[in-house]
Amino acid sequence: MGRIYERTSAFFGVKTDLETLTKDLLSGDRRALARAISVVENGGPQATQLVKRVYAQSGRAHLIGVTGSPGVGKSTLVDALITQMREANLKVGVLAIDPSSPFTGGAILGDRIRMQAHTLDKSVFIRSMANRGHSGGIAMGTYDAVRMLEASGYDVVIIETVGVGQSELAIAQAADTTILVLMPGSGDDVQAIKSGIMEIGDIFVVNKGDLPGANKTATDITASLELASFQTDWRPPVITCISETGENVDQIWEAAKNHREFLETSGQLKERRKLKVQAELSEIVAGMARDNLKAALANSGETKEVVGQVVEREVDPHTAAEQLAKTLFGGV
Ligand SMILES: Nc1nc2c(ncn2[C@@H]2O[C@H](COP(=O)(O)OP(=O)(O)OP(=O)(O)O)[C@@H](O)[C@H]2O)c(=O)[nH]1
Ligand SMILES: [Mg+2]
Predict the structure, then answer these.
(1) pTM for the full model?
(2) CA of 84 to the centre of ligand 1 (A)
(3) Whether 81 contacts 158, CB under 8 Å
(4) Residues 148 and 103 in one domain
(5) pLDDT of residue 105
């Protein structure tokens, strides 16, 4: 694995090879795809160039976010969903963001044979990603990685994220359809209801339906959804499943397809994507402004002067910063 990767990196390391990389990526080559995701993950000018080249070929996949607390069975569910999607002959890409346990861990224990089928399946591409993000943006690297998968011909892209923090929210918002996974007896349902996380779920899954309390968890969630107010006509279904055996996972896939259809026919898909683009643009422009300002500050004679004054305790840092800001862009 490591050796193949090194060889590919060395091969594509030269700038002119971006052209080859783009061509191979668009033709569906898996190694090019792996390399392209690394490029966008690292960010910088190469990433920008690559995105510019493939953007027109992206935007076609159904993006499905799968989120929930550690250990609820997200990866096992994703594995079972892949089986459904492959039956429909779809190419499936999976991005596991900051997985707290190896993506295949549960699945390998649960069903060694099935997972092996997916890893050998050339129409399934699974990748773990760190949630570092470039230019300060959390979801930006993820957006671009999704684009690489789309350009490479993937019909469905699943984004698995752990937990329900701010960054996971941002990644969930990157998806068209968000599946919130819960399990019985974890108290997660209560937490979810309290923290308002319910709003991000388009589909609620109570996994580990074989464990006691699954029905109660599903009932609690359904009850709280009945009280919730929705911004659209979509009513999130609550589905109990057993990811380990695949039981009811077909219903989840059905619900995901229905949701996607709802988004398209109601015009919500465009609306959601507009919001995403707006967030992305403000992130990129803010990053540019920050870089420009830092450069301008570093090169300004006034900075040197003011720095001296602050060190000598003639001026405090806030007054000094206000003064510099005024010179640079006419005040704060
Ligand atoms: N009883 C039962 N166990 C399950 C089921 N689905 C998954 N598990 C088990 O739950 C554990 C965690 O599964 P994962 O799929 O790794 O969970 P995850 O949410 O992806 O975990 P992180 O990525 O670490 O957050 C594993 O031991 C699975 O075998 C299920 O339907 N029933
Ligand atoms: Mg996982």
Answers:
(1) 0.85
(2) 18
(3) yes
(4) yes
(5) 42
Residues in CB range of 9: below 8 A, 6 or more apart: 35, 38
CATH number at residue 113: 3.40.50.300
Among 57, 88, 103, the domain boundary falls at: 57
Same domain, 72 and 154: yes
In a domain, 308, yes or no: yes
pLDDT at 116: 58
69 lies in a domain? Answer: yes
Which residue among 76, 114, 160, 217 has the greatest number of ligand 1 atoms within 8 angstroms of its CB, and so is best to mutate? 76
What size, in residues, is the chain? 332
Gap from CA of 273 to ligand 2 centroid (Å): 26
Sheet strands side by side (includes 92-97): 124-129, 92-97, 156-162, 62-68, 177-182, 203-206, 238-240
**In terms of residue numbers, what domain contains 305?**
277-329
Phi and psi dihedrals of 219, rounded to 5? -65, -45
Question: CB neighbours of 65 closer than 8 A, spacing ≥ 6?
Answer: 158, 159, 161, 171, 172, 174, 175, 177, 178, 179
The half-sphere exposure of 69 on its side-chain side, counting CA atoms within 13 A, is 15
Contacts of 39 (CB under 8 A, 6+ apart): 12, 21, 46, 47, 50
**Res 132 pLDDT > 80:** no
CA 204/CA 232 separation, integer angstroms? 16
Residues 7 and 147 placed together within one structural domain of the fold: no
- The answer to whether residue 183 is domain-embedded is yes
User: Which helix (H) or strand (E) covers residue 159, if one does?
Assistant: strand 156-162
